[in-house]
Structure formats: C-alpha cells, structure tokens
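Usage

Read records sequentially. Each one opens with the input sequence:
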Amino acid sequence: MQVRVQEPQTQGVDIDAVLARAARYLPPERVEPLREVYAFAALCHDGQMRKTGDPYITHPLEVTNLVAELELDASALAAALLHDVQEDCKVPNEVIREKFGGDVATLVDGLTKLDKLPMTFGGDVQAIRAGQQAQNLRKMFLAMAEDVRVVLIKLCDRLHNMRTLWAFGPEKQERIALETMEIFAPLANRLGVWQIKWELEDLAFRYLDPAEYKRIAELLAAKRQQRQEYIQEATASVREHLAAAGIKAEVTGRAKHIYSIHQKMQRYAEQGKAFDQIYDLLAIRVFVENVSECYHALGIVHGLWRPIPGQIDDYIANPKDSRYQSLHTTVLALNGRPLEIQIRTYEMHRVAEYGVAAHWAYKEGGRSTGRDEERIAWLRQLLDWQRDLAGAEEFVESVKTDIFHDQVFVYTPKGEVLDLPAGATPLDFAYRIHTDLGHQTVGAKVNNRMVSLNATLHNGDIVEIMRSRTSKGPSRDWLNPNLGYIHTAHSKSKIRQWFRRQERDENIERGREMIEKEMRRLGLDLAERQEQILSLFNYTTWEDFLAALGYGGVSTTTIARKLGDLLREEEGEADLPPALPEKMAPAALGSPSLQVTGVGNLLTTMARCCNPLPGDQIVGYVTRTRGITVHRADCVNVLNEEEQERLIGVEWGSASRLYPANIVIEAWDRVGLLRDITTVVTEEKVNMVGVRTVENGDGSVNILTTLETTGIEQLSRLLSRIEIIRGVRTVERAIERKRAREAAPARRG
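and closes with the structure output:
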C-alpha cells in the first residue's frame, strides 16, 4: 500500500511579495498592472478552495512567484496568475484576450488542460484518463515549441502542485508523482532548469518510494555534521589558494539531492560499492569572472589535491544539450576523501540554475537571438514529428523516448553531426535522415566496419547506411522490441505507417501467424485466451486486433506481458477443475511467490511434469507426504485426477523466485550453434539447467533444455532472441497436456 505523505501547512506569499520580486528586474510600469490581473484572478477564484484548505488564489500566487524567480516577462507573470481561470472558472479565452492582450491569452490557452474541455473518448475510465492526459501533454509540447514560456510556467505550476501533493490520497499521489518523474522532471532537465528539476525529482521520489526516500535522508542526516565540517575546511583551503594566485572567486558547498543519490547508490550497488564510496556526496562550487579563470582555477585545484583519473569533465568546451557549461573534477582531498569540485563563471551558473530562462529574451519586448533559438532546436522537431504520428499517446511516447533520453552524437560519412537518443541503432540513424532510407536499409557500417542493424551507436561514431532501392520495405522483425533493431519512437512510427498502408487482408493473415506462433511457443491455448486478449487491448473484433498486430500496432512482447499480468491476477475460475473448494481468505505459502486458499503455511513444490510459470493458470495438489505440488491447470495429471477433493486453489503472488521452463529448439546443426544459444541465454541472465541434443537424421537437431525464468514475459523475450540465431528453425515451450479429460487414462494420486 502506498504510504500517504503529509506535511504541515505553510504560510504562502501574497501579491505584494510577488510584485516586489518582479520589481527586481522589471520596470514599475510593467509591474503595477499586474495588480489588476491579480484582482481579476482573485474574483474568478472567489469561494474556491484547495485540498490543502487554502483559498484557491494561493496557488496562482505561488506559481507566479516561482515564475518571477525565473525572471520571465510581465506577460508570463500575468499568464501565471490567470493560468487556471479558463480551466477552472470557465472564463472564455476571448475575455482574457480582450482584457489583457493576445500574448497573455495565448499563453493561458497553451496552459489549459484538455480534460476540462468538451471531448469525446471511447473505452473505460482508465483509457479515457490516459487518452486525456496524452492529449494534454501533446498540446503543451506543441505550444511550448511555439513559445517556451508555456512550459516554463507549466513547470512552476507542477512544482507547486508537487509541494502540496500531501493533501491528496495515495492513489493520486502516486499517479501524479509518476507523471512528474517521467515527463516534467526530464523536461526541466532538457531545458536546463536544474533547480526545478532537482526539486521535482526529490518530491516525486518521496511519494513513489517513501521508504527508500526516508532511508537515504536518514543516512545523510547521520553524518551531516561531519560533512559540513569537511566542506568548510575544504572550501577555506580552495579559497585561500585561489586568492594567493590572484583569482577573485566565490567558493560554496553544494548539497546533493536525494534522488540523485538514490540513482548513484543503485549504480554503485551493481559494482559492490557502499554508500560512503559515492564520490560526489561531498562537493563544492567555485564561481569566477571569466572562462580563462575557470581553467586557471582548475590547475590550482589539481596542484592542491590529486585528481582521480577518469573523473574530469570539460563541459565548457563541450556544453550539454541544455547549454550547461562547467568544469567538473573529482580529487582526493583532505584525508584522501573524494571531493567533487565544479568550476564555472557566474553567467554559467545562471544558465545551470535556470536553463533557457536565463537567456530567453522575453524581458520587456526583447526578441530571441539565434543562440537562444539553438537552445530549443530540439523542440522544433516536435512540430514536424507530430504531423506523422497517429495519436496523442504515440506522440507522448515519441517525446519520452526520443527527446528526454540522454543523447549521443554521431556523424554521417560527409561529417554532418546527428544527435540521437542513447541506445539508438543504425536503423534509427537511417530513419532520422529519411524515411525512405530507413525502409530500404539492408546493412550498415560504423567506423568503416560492418555491424548488425541492432548495434548500439556511441558518441563520435561515423555511420554509413547501405540501401537497396529494390527493397520491398522494412522487416516486421524490426518492430520486435526483444530484438533491439530500433530504439526511437520516431523509427517505430515510420515502420508502423508503412505496414499500416499495406493490404488489410495481408496484415490480418500476418497477425494471425504471429499470435498463433507466440501462443504456441509459450504453451498457451489461443482459443481460451482470445476474448481476454481483445479485452486487454480494447479491440472490438478479432480481425481488427490481428490487423494491428500485423502492421506493428501491437507487439507479441506486449501480449506476453499483459497476459502474464492478467493470469497472475486470476484466481483459477475457467480452467480449473470444477470440484475446487470455494475461495477463502488467502494465506501465504512457504514460497512468497504463491498463495493458497483456506490453508496455513505449507511446503510447496513445482510439478516437474508441467513446470508452471508465473502467468500460467495453476492449481495445487495436496500430497500425502510432500505438502502441495503446484501444477498447470491444464496439466494432464490434473485433468485426470480422480480425487478432486485433493485439488486446491493456488494463485501467483510476486515473482520472487525462478521457475524452470522446458524448451525445445529445432535447428540445422553447425559448429558454434550451442555456443550462440548459451550466449543469448547468459545475456538474459537466465540459468540453463541441463542440455540434451537429439539428431534428426536430416542435418537438423532438437536441443532440449530447461531454463530458469521469472515468468512468461521473460520467456517470450528469450525465445524471440533464440529464434533469430543462425540456423534456428523453431523454438517453443515443451508442454505435455491434454484438453479432454476423457481422452486420457485415469490416474490416482
């Protein structure tokens, strides 16, 4: 259950405080009219209250105060005060335009949520909510591509909402926190507004994982005094040596944020390192006047303490996408303890804290420069992409995958630089250049060496695409996420469009082949699951679903995942023998991955005759000496059990252990075949338990093995990867079962 986080109510700002902050950078004639805007907003929100118990007008005031901290212009401040009157007070945008001008009205409209406007959606409540939110985000992204002030105000709005999220229930807390972590924090990062990004991440993390948040906070608190003393001594030493060299500098300690510590702890745990070994828990910043003094200061620091190899980054010569600039180094400072030092100019620090807002020329009629435009060049891509994307959900997926991920920079053979999301492949590169080039790709070279089309590109790679103009188009295998051919939503969308344009009958037939193959190799009965599959994917007819599967709108991987989730939730109604006892309150089994109905803790074992996996329908058989044996519900031994009273309801809990799955691989025999199979299995971190090879006499072999997997989803991914190994003809799960109880001989337990 989600822990509800509560906070005490705090005193907010008033209009005088907000205007005083704005007056620090705006002339009086631009500040005073904001009182009229405030009066209008207060009148519109009169009588409305927030969940916190505060008058609603406190929210627009707090948002406007945050916007003033970014030093945006008077129009942005007015829009922040009015950002909810169109949505929550039903004030027409035309009224805002008439009273406060077109600039303010356009900003307010860009900030308005679509779920409060007349819209028509089909499907259930969750689907409606998801569709509405995707539409909201799409509108916001497109609006900010035209005017970046929209998203800067939106980020301030989201930040204040996160600060007061404690007033809502756990379900809403988790939903909003997840959206913040997936959309708004990465957006703040890409825009370089790090001050907002850090706070959004910490607040979201607090609700998504309150226990871990508390643990890290306590770890930090335990050694706070020790760290403060260390930082004070280190800053004093750096300050003294810089002054001796004639460099006027400001040296301060830097607080590390909880979520970033969490991320580092996860990475360090994989390397077997402890909390105390995180280098940049201790950090200081050095501010100087110009770039030359940055490098001079770096030399002085390295003369004072020994730098750690590989821990030096020059973001001045190589700025980040957000135009962040700084020198980063980690040194072995006092007592040999690692200490991170960041060196930058004061102007670089403004950009680091406020990103595009630091240079955006909306201050009193100014116009953006070419340099400013470069800062949001990636936003312009959205305007081009959105025209090709079918729906809002697909658009948002594209933004999350292609825009918010870390970037790699690669070169064309002519030396042109292309930025792609980290993890991109040569196919992604081809589709980024031109759709037709992607469709006609047959091979690729990276740094003059032939590579597979699913190879991962890295910074500095020179990529050359080989094409065939006689190509019949992309392969459906490219859409299989288990095979890793494409990484970007942009590429995926282009491939789906190509298949969508093909004949519907062809897509239906191809989809039928794909679903039958997937269900067969997973050991699931398609006829029994057809209606469930339609329901899971919200299709009304089986032909529509097959067509979507055929052109790539649905993947077999998603089918396996959703079926696995569904079957874990099921309680064994349809496929279980009819004589099962009525369901009672579940009691935990000896294994944390199972629950049994109406029985206390018992020894449980997995039946070797059918090797059930999480996602399979299961039933327990009460043995006389070995506790409960867990079978697949369609296991031949269960279907023919005469003592039905010994069968008991069993259901899956959390997948906290491994489960054996018997696999049969049919392939043409060759040198290195088994090596290639075991390599794939190892890469998936799956244990292979025993291997037996049977020759068929025609040059082919059957390889029988048992793989310890976490469930159906992992098994599906693994089978997809094995299937593309050279020489492999088929690969599927081996299951001994009979559907008709009468067709098998009777068995006694």
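Summary fields computed downstream for this record:
- Residues 289 and 347 are 8 Å apart (CA to CA).
- The longest strand covers residues 659-668.
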